[in-house]
Amino acid sequence: MRLLRSRPTPPGPASPGDVLAAADGLHVRLGSRDVLCGVDVDVRAGEVLALVGPNGAGKSTLLGALAADLPAARGTVRIHGRPAGEWSAPELALRRAVLPQAAALSFPFTVAEVVRMGRAPHDSSPAEDDLTIAEAMAATEVSAFAGRPFSALSGGERARVALARVLAQRAPLLLLDEPTAALDLKHQELVLRVCRERAREGDAVVVVLHDLGLAAAYAHRVAVLHAGRVAADGPPGEVFTERLLSEVYEQPVEVVPHPRTGALLVTPKRNL
Amino acid sequence: MTVLDKQVEAAAPAAAPRGGRGTAWLIGAGLVAALLVLVPVAGALGAYPIPVGDVWASLQHRAGLGGAGLDRVAESVLWNVRFPRIVLALLVGASLGCAGALMQGVFGNPLAEPGVIGISAGAAVGAVASIAFGITFLGTWTVPAFAFLAGLATVLLVYALSRSGGRSEVVTLILTGIAVNAFAGALIGLFLFFADAAAIQQITFWQLGSLSQATWPKVLAVLPCAVVGLGLAPLYSRRLDLLALGERPARHLGVEVERLRIVLILVIALLTAAAVSVSGIISFVGLVVPHLLRMAAGPGHRFLVPGSALLGALVLLAADLAARTVAVPAELPLGVLTALLGSPFFFWLLRRTRRRQGGWA
To answer: Which stretch is the leader sequence (chain B) (predicted)?
Structure first.
């Protein structure tokens, strides 16, 4: 079967600043609802882009559209410069990797087997695969339970295994939907450090986050989504203002500099 | 970087998957060896016993590798009665086992099985229709062809009814199976009502799930379906593994999910039709066989798909041998025997899953 089908061509190298994914006037409808109404976003190589915003603002939908999962009702999505719909599934698999919000598995594959699934798009040698898999598992600290069945893991462990699989795919565009949702403090930091590391190596990373403090600390750029539109887009230092965040989240928010480092801290305004 | 390297090294030994490739090879070799033993034994046992050594000699003789022919009666019993039946048992068992493994992979659900969710009953409707109405325009291929078309329609129906949001929930799947089985049963009853006495007798015999009417023309009739199905199935093993992650993640990893599903549903219908058109509804083989192998060698489809075909062939050959030898001179219906052994396993599976994860939701 493999002999009959021509292998998909791998992407050429990207230099920092190249736009690897772009939404242009994007409208997406889910059922009868317009979830995104005119979104413009560029995703650049060498950059961590955080998508933040209240529940139902369209963060996951935007991620799905950038992943070529959801079709555009109007406007366009381009992945590596080409309209999303024109790529075949094997070609896309070499260009973007996606971490879904919930990791499910129908059969009790082991952790190592699940991470190995990330190598499926590649026609690489087993030795190269082994090395990539071991690196991905070390980076997400899941090597210790490589032999255990995925179904026997806790929620946070599963989330890290799913991330390891996505890292093993070695795609230049990483789309991560709430990778920190099930994780403890230490592993939240770990995952975002991994994101920065991948960006430093020249990949484009899009990450949906709820923790604005994490976004402020680790993202190069933040897009604040509000009711299907981009309310603001820029470096966290410019975008995260008390006025904007209080309005978008309909909750008074304080933005203060960290007493030691001066980094931005974002907290809800509490009067306890 | 050195820290990372150390971690990588430490990870390497732990990365060997449980029940790895070694176990799979071992089990595969064991299954082949068991088949090589059981085939001549099945040829030897029966109402007219033939020594196993003579069976080997006759096999070698026919293959032109020396050996010696047997006397006229033994030769006739062996080659006109037992071997067609053995080959048919192997084909039907392999088809059922393989169809079960594929179906569980496509539905992402360990309970999917042609018998349980009504595909076999659907295929049976086609087969019964062709017998009841005396349709023969495709010669010996008429019954398999009708079984295939009806089976295909049923898989598509069950698939469409039981899926929502890219997954099929167990409850929906089983309830759909109940509805489909009931409807197929009603249709079969209706066809029996319209059929003449000879056709009724033929249908009743066939419905019990027996291989006792095996002949070489029957083997030839199901051979195309079974060979095409069994040949295509292993090509999709890797993609079935990825499908375990869910449809979207599988697509993210480069699987053309829609096309994969359509091809596999065709293959499942082919295999089920091959099995049902000769031997009626033999349930639980497609359920039990992949489960046993998954427990022993893990869920990877590269071993599971061909392994299920091998173990299915072995199980059905053994069951058929038991069916025709335990109650001599009478013969137990094969379908009755497999259901008798398979149903308790099904029950145990339900209990075990319930205990471990509070049931299937």
So the answer is: none
- Which chain A residue has its CA at the smallest distance from B11's CA? A143
Among A120, A143, A144, whose Cβ lies nearest the Cβ of B242? Answer: A120
Higher pLDDT, B51 or B17: B51
Asked whether residue A183 falls in the same domain as residue A193, the answer is: yes
Q: Per this entry, what is the length of chain B?
A: 361
Q: What is the pLDDT of residues A169-182, one digit of tens each?
A: 999 999 999 999 98
Domain containing A184 — which CATH number? 3.40.50.300
pLDDT single digits (tens) B41-80: 998 888 888 898 888 888 888 888 777 778 888 888 889 9
Nearest to A143 among B7, B110, B241 (CB): B7
Closest chain A C-alpha to B254 CA, distance in angstroms: 4
Contacts of residue B235 in chain A, CB cutoff 8 Å? 1
Is the domain of A228 the same as that of A108? no
Say how many CB pairs under 8 Å bridge A and B.
Answer: 111
In this prediction the ipTM stands at 0.91
Q: What is the mean pLDDT of chain A?
A: 92
The domain total for chain A is 2
Q: Is A28 a domain residue? A: yes
The pLDDT value given to residue A121: 93
Residue A6: which pLDDT band, with cuts at 50, 70 and 90?
low
In a domain, A132, yes or no: yes
Taking CA atoms, A131 is separated from A138, B3, B324, in Å, by 10, 15, 55
pLDDT score of B12 more than 70: no
* pLDDT attached to residue B4: 43
3-state SS string over chain A? CCCCCCCCCCCCCCCCCCEEEEEEEEEEEECCEEEEEEEEEEEECCEEEEEECCCCCCHHHHHHHHCCCCCCCEEEEEECCEEHHHCCHHHHHCCEEEECCCCCCCCCCEHHHHHHHCCCCCCCCHHHHHHHHHHHHHHCCCHHHCCCEHHHCCHHHHHHHHHHHHHHCCCCEEEEECCCCCCCHHHHHHHHHHHHHHHHCCCEEEEECCCHHHHHHHCCEEEEEECCEEEEEECHHHHCCHHHHHHHHCCCEEEEECCCCCCEEEEECCCC
Predicted local distance difference test score (pLDDT) of residue B167: 59
- Domain end marker among A144, A170, A196: A170
Same domain, A205 and A231: yes
Q: Is residue B15 predicted with pLDDT exceeding 80?
A: no
Of A97, A134, A149, the CB nearest to B11: A134
